[in-house]
Amino acid sequence: MRTPNERTLLCIGAAAALLVVGALVGSYPAYLLGLAMVNVIAAVGLNLLVGNSGQISLCHSSFMAVGAYSSSLLASGAGLPFWAAIPAGSVVAAIVGALLGLPARRLHGIYLALATLGFLQIVQIVVEEFADFTGGVRGLNTAKPTLLGSPLTSYGVYCVVAIVCVLAVWLAINIKRSRIGREFDAVRLSPHAAQALGISVARVKLTAFALSAAYAGLAGGLFAILVGFIDPNEFGIAASLRQLTYIVVGGLGSIGGAIVGAALLSGLPELLRPIKEYTDFAAALVLLGALLFMPHGLASAWQRLTPKPKATWRGVPA
Amino acid sequence: MPASFYVQLAIAGISVGSVYALIALSIVVPFKASGVLNFGQGELATLGAYAALVLSQFGLPYYLVAPLVIASGALIGLMIERALIRPVIKAPAFTVIIATFAIGLAIKSAIALHWGDTPYGVAGPFGDEPLVFNGLRANPTSLWIVLCTVAITALVGGFFKYARPGKAMRAVSINPEAATLMGIRINGSYRWAWGMSSAIGALAGLLVAPVVGINPEVGGLILRGLVAAVLGGFTSIYGAVIGGILVGLLETFAAVGLGGTVKNLAPFLVLLLLLAFRPYGLFGSREIHRV
Amino acid sequence: MSPRLELVDVCVGFGGVRAVDGLSFSVAASQIRGLIGPNGAGKTTVINAITGVVPILSGEIRLDGQRISGLPAHVISRMGVGRTFQHVEAFGELSVLENVLIGAGRAADRGLLSYALSLPSARASEASVRSQAMAALEAFDLLAVRDERTSGLPFGLLKRMDLARSMVASPKLLLMDEPTSGMSESEADSAIATARELARMHRTTLLVVEHNMRVMMSLAQHITVVQFGSLIAEGSPAEIQANPTVIDAYLGEEASDAVH
Predict the structure, then answer these.
(1) A289 within domain boundaries
(2) Rounded to whole angstroms, what are the CA distances from A175 to C31, C112, C116?
(3) pTM
(4) ipTM for this prediction
């Protein structure tokens, strides 16, 4: 268990490493890495909601869509620079997440799953119907991000994604190791005990929804400038399931697991691009396989291989 | 608008609603029996539709196609239950829900892989000439759908009330331990439930194929079916059917009164409102909810 | 001066069955009150009603004169009401330390952003919570197992953890539901002595439901006896042990146990 300062240094080191790697590899591998990092952000956010606070959500991709569309519209419509539009998109997504979280507080299990599914459908329909704003089914071109007047190169966009990704992971680790993270776990493990210890289960669920939506919105905004185009098909139920696959394979509740799961499995759609139709089928099989054979994910396998030392106590042993 | 217009609309709504009712039924039956909500149920309707396509391409007449579709639906359902559901049934709700989703996605993408996006058509069993009665026009396929739904509902209701396996399933759903003590085999109960529900789902796909065509998106019906099931209270067979009819009517009247966007949004807005204020629907029982 | 806890004509029921029927009693501050009664007397329901987990049909429950019946459970907890659980309700996947940290978290109230950005105020709050938790672990002799996952630990140890977890935030009123069940005699004596000492230090009022009569008679200063959800006797341990109504109630239970 590292101290907060060690963690910060490690993250700065990781960011530096990513920037160097991005400069060294060609532009297509860097683009793929960028996609992987966007998925990492989304997965880490989803993990806080599903893995830590135990709320099921099938509409994570919808919050990505909200972030993508709102940041794009703010950039092209209101002329916001990308470094303001993307965080603003994340905030919009967080607000929408809170709005969904309000009624969701009293739901659990299949009812919560249904509510998030219904919300997903509503977002998809809204995107299609308000085509004047969203481009409808044909999609939306995003404005090229500019810094100090000149447009960002693809390496510039990569750097933005890398830095934001590391920052997002750092924030998530801090949250998870704090009172907030413990309250998430408490609500998941025993709502009764949590209540008895003064934790408002309803408020924790709402916070978890809003926080995970903020992460998804951030990922969506970055996705939009990385790809340059928003395709509504990227934000449907298949995408939500893919994100769930990342965290299930990685290990629910583990940030490291979410990172590894997202990074490893992100490559799949691109690898299968020549046979694009197989993507959904492969994703479904991976998810099923993970649920059946590795229900606790890679993180728990890792934990079993690297046992923690027993607690030492300065004093007379029991 | 003359009264006959509204009656026509109602007939259309009831017909659409009947398909939703069948889907809702196929969701509620295994849920009552095993507590598992099969999010992949819609894909069984897709399977039914494509099975009908394949069988009719062999030149088989409708009265042979229909039972074969039902039988293959049941078979596939049993296979899924044995291979994929049985292992995860003890897992937490999250795992089971996601697993059923993944199964559905696997089926859908496998179908899309083989047949592609090309929409196929199939003729209705009684042709497309509308029947006219007292100035009211009705599509014979629509009437056939309603008839089948009524028949299936009666069969399912009767099965649960009078047939031995059906009564056993009710016992299991009320109290699994007591049921086991009385000699009822729980696994057998689950098998019946899944077999029945997939058969009904496949039938729904077959019935709706002449109306919406055959394409991988047929499974989207499940969304309306889920709204219907929630409306009906999730544990009531008749509630599911009534819920389906209501959703169908809602959609049909909303389309005419308020336009396409609202028509698409309406079922999901209803769903969210229901879940927010009355998750046990019209006929379900209130759960004691502590936290 | 209002009593620390006051129940006034409280009724709790589920579907026609009255678990608690017109129960009234009060507990003065810093007192140690026992709550006993034959099985099914409604003791756990009383605790659930006080902590707000279960709604009451009528009557009122007051903490230091202030009405708490009808408030949400977590609000009642934050007002200073703690409880231990008959079946512990541990946060299974978490370690013993993390369980107690959650108990202590009531004191920490930095916002989400402070924790996310690892601000000094958040770090200070976390350090303070951690030291409170460690002190509680030490008091209940749990330091050696602090990093062990609670799922898989022996029941008696978990009961000690539950005590530590509920006492770490120094509640005004602590409701203890069968605190020594699953413990050996020496474990029970030690844990109860610690609890009593901590309660004395923080002026915590204790309301203890306990089947172990030896523990109850030595711990409680005053005992309330309920049967079928109503009060049948109140008094000192000696008075209660000699009370014929109480003996009848328990004998009746023994007799019916013997028949079945």
Answers:
(1) no
(2) 40, 7, 5
(3) 0.90
(4) 0.90
